[in-house]
Design goal:
The chain is an all-alpha fold. It has ten helices and no strands. The longest helix has 24 residues. The radius of gyration is 19 Å and the shape is globular. The two termini are 26 Å apart.
Length: 207
């Protein structure tokens, strides 16, 4: 899918952060799955440090990488690996602290909340969300673009997917979504991590 994904092929030809973010995200997930299940052995595992550093680098490339840390923490807590969860949270905090202090010293702040509250973050003239109808419209459009049109467009590029929501992309996207959930379930623990990470990322994209 990655080799024939039109969006990835487009971004990989440009000097942008998407490809490096994808690399370190993949490296973090790969090493996280190779950590020992015993909490007492985590500190002696190379996989723990590779995963920690990788997720921190991914976060510095794109702040949405924080959702990957969230997936690791939730998965660790579900497995009752308290030391692993605490180590990841504390280590990530230490690695992210210099960047946060630097931004604070320069008076810089994130633009995420401004994007959430805007009708269209790419069009400043569209204004801010001021009614429940506007919120519902934005969430519905983002859900359609990222899931119900986005998934089929990656797997089956070239079809005339309409930009505005219509029935057949909802139906096709729903079928792909159900297939993806079933596949993640069959993957077991690895699928759980991908599922939590996808869910957290989707919530951010929906907003």
């Amino acid at each position: 899918l990655l080799a024939f994904n039109r969006e990835w092929l487009q971004w990989c030809n440009q000097i942008m952060s998407e490809m490096l973010f994808f690399f370190f995200t993949g490296l973090a997930i790969w090493s996280f799955n190779r950590m020992p299940s015993n909490d007492q052995q985590v500190w002696r595992s190379w996989a723990f440090f590779v995963s920690l550093v990788s997720v921190a680098i991914a976060f510095h490339f794109r702040s949405i990488g924080i959702t990957l840390l969230g997936a690791f923490l939730v998965s660790s807590l579900l497995d009752r690996n308290w030391i692993k969860a605490a180590g990841l949270a504390g280590g990530f905090g230490l690695l992210a602290l210099p960047w946060m202090l630097r931004n604070r010293a320069l008076g810089l702040k994130g633009r995420y909340m401004d994007a959430v509250l805007s009708v269209n973050p790419w069009d400043a003239d569209a204004g801010q969300l001021e009614s429940s109808e506007a919120w519902i419209g934005k969430l519905t459009k983002n859900l359609y673009d990222t899931v119900f049109r986005g998934f089929p467009e990656v797997v089956m590029p070239g079809l005339p997917y309409p930009k505005e929501p219509t029935f057949w992309p909802w139906a096709l996207g729903g079928a792909f979504l159900a297939l993806m959930i079933w596949g993640l379930y069959k993957l077991g623990k690895v699928g759980r991590i991908f599922g939590i990470y996808t869910l957290f990322s989707a919530v951010v994209f929906f907003l």
